Amino acid sequence: MSFQSLALRPRLLDAVVEMGYTSPTPIQREAIPHVLEGRDVVGCAQTGTGKTAAFVLPTLHRIKPDGKLRALVVTPTRELAQQIGEVGREAARFSRHRIAEIYGGVGYEPQLKKLRQGVDMVVATPGRLLDIHERGEIDFSRVEILVLDEADRMLDMGFWPDVRRIIRLLPEKRQNLLFSATMSSGVLNVVRSTLNEPVNIETSQATKPVDEVEQAVYPVSSRQKSELLVALLEERHMERVLVFTRTKHRADRVHKVLSKAGISAASIHGGRTQAQRQKALDNFKAGKTRVLVATDVVARGIDVDEISHVVNYDLPNTPEDYVHRIGRTARAGATGSAVSFLAAEETALLHEIERKLGERLEIRDHDGFAYATDRIVPMAERKVTGGPRLAYSGGVMRRGGRGRGSARRRR
After folding, report:
1. Mean pLDDT, the chain, as a whole number?
2. Measured at the alpha carbon of residue 272, what is the angle toward residues 267 and 274, in degrees to the nearest 5?
3. Which of 4, 73, 92, 397 is the most exposed place for a label (fewest CB within 10 A)?
4. How many angstroms separate the CA atoms of 201 and 210, rounded?
5. Residues 394 and 366 grouped into a single domain
6. What are the tens digits of pLDDT across the range 23-50?
């Protein structure tokens, strides 16, 4: 199927060519015709599959470029709002639609200036959008299309009361589009009354990582995680690396350790200013920074091609977050690797991830790394590749020799 067969307006098709799109991805192929028909859509597709264009293109097709706010996209983070706005402007380069992003962490005046000049689509985070509405600076009366992007993340982050307030401010007669990498029953229960006979679209592998991601788990003591990360970065071919930590404090600490080791790194999380976050992201995109250390709060706004490795310095709290994280690599058909560090206290999280994936992940050691004896290797019957390693004897771990043939394994 070609984009021409989707019956988008010629000016949008011209933009599609300029954007480098050749043929629609599965989520675009499935969703765009229904959006063009005016149907409510619930779309579920993993990160990196063209989900943003799947709602941006048909939305621009359906609204007039007259400077009146007719499409509203609500999303959980500033970075994601910027990403969607960028895709929107690229798609609208020939159609004259005007698009503005509204998010916190920056001054109000530049955003208000854009609104006063007239916009056709607004991409916003919930809190700042409500603030601007309370100031009387935005008119929702002509909104025809509402898009909730990453709806499950907004629920997880506690934004749903704000989202409900926004929905109540909009015209009752409108088209509703929900898109996310995962779509939990909790989200669907919350929005059920908002939707009008929605079309449900779930592309293949919507909640699983793409096959092109090589996944491995490295058991290591919590106190040795930073040391192991430095060792991997020094010896492995890891060109552009995204590292995830559980908290912003750990992100900053890992950033400092890497910088001290002479590895070009930056951190990005909710505690950094918008200017700091944007600079870190821009340098990472440009290849000036080799390693970006991030938290889940900002993860979904990181839209960077050619990320060679994702490192889960801390395992995420949910399998869904694991899927989102490793989806940052192997985008658009490329290959990539996901490395997860496993401390003893994270074993239950690993089991949940594996149950979600329906498979066991390979357990590895880093050759030559001096592991502390207090680390835990999950399930003695699972092989550990590489060396040195821990061998099992009577259920007690002991130090194994170097090399592949030296470890005793239980099958």
Report:
1. 84
2. 110
3. 4
4. 18
5. yes
6. 898 999 999 999 999 999 999 887 677 8
Whether pTM > 0.90 for this model: the answer is no
Of 61-65, 244-248, 271-275, 363-367, which has the strongest mean pLDDT? 61-65
CATH label of the domain that carries residue 241: 3.40.50.300
Q: Is the model's pLDDT at 204 over the cut of 60?
A: no
CA separation (Å) from 321 to 1, 120, 326, 327?
32, 33, 9, 10
Which helix or strand (DSSP H or E) is residue 391 part of? Answer: strand 390-393
Q: Which residue would you say has higher pLDDT here, 55 or 274?
A: 55
Q: The domain containing residue 249 runs over which residues? A: 213-399
DSSP class per residue in 279-343: HHHHHHHTTS-SEEEE-HHHHTT---TT--EEEESS--SSHHHHHHHHTTSSGGG--EEEEEEE-
What Å distances lie between residue 75 and 31, 121, 238, 292, CA to CA?
Answer: 19, 13, 31, 22
Rounded to 5°, angle at Cα 165 from 164 and 171: 90
Whether the CB-CB separation of 319 and 346 falls below 8 Å is answered with no
Dihedral of the alpha carbons of 40, 175, 101, 19, in degrees to the nearest 10 = 60
**Pairing status of strand 121-124 against strand 71-74:** parallel
What is the tens place of the pLDDT at every residue in 59-75? 999 999 999 999 999 99
Last residue of a domain, one of 180, 202, 224: 202
Give yes or no for residue 80 having a pLDDT over 70.
Answer: yes
- The two tokens of residue 231 are 């060792």
What is the arithmetic mean of pLDDT over 373-383? 67
Confidence check: pLDDT of 401 > 50: no
With a cut of 60, say whether residue 340 has pLDDT above it: yes
- Same domain (yes/no): 190, 284: no
Residue 395 neighbours by CB distance under 10 Å? 7
DSSP count for the chain of H helices, then E strands: 15, 17
- In degrees, rounded to 5, the angle at the alpha carbon of residue 125 between the alpha carbons of residues 164 and 178 is 60
One domain for residues 219 and 182: no
Question: In 3D, which of 389, 397, 346, 398 has the Cα closest to residue 365?
Answer: 389
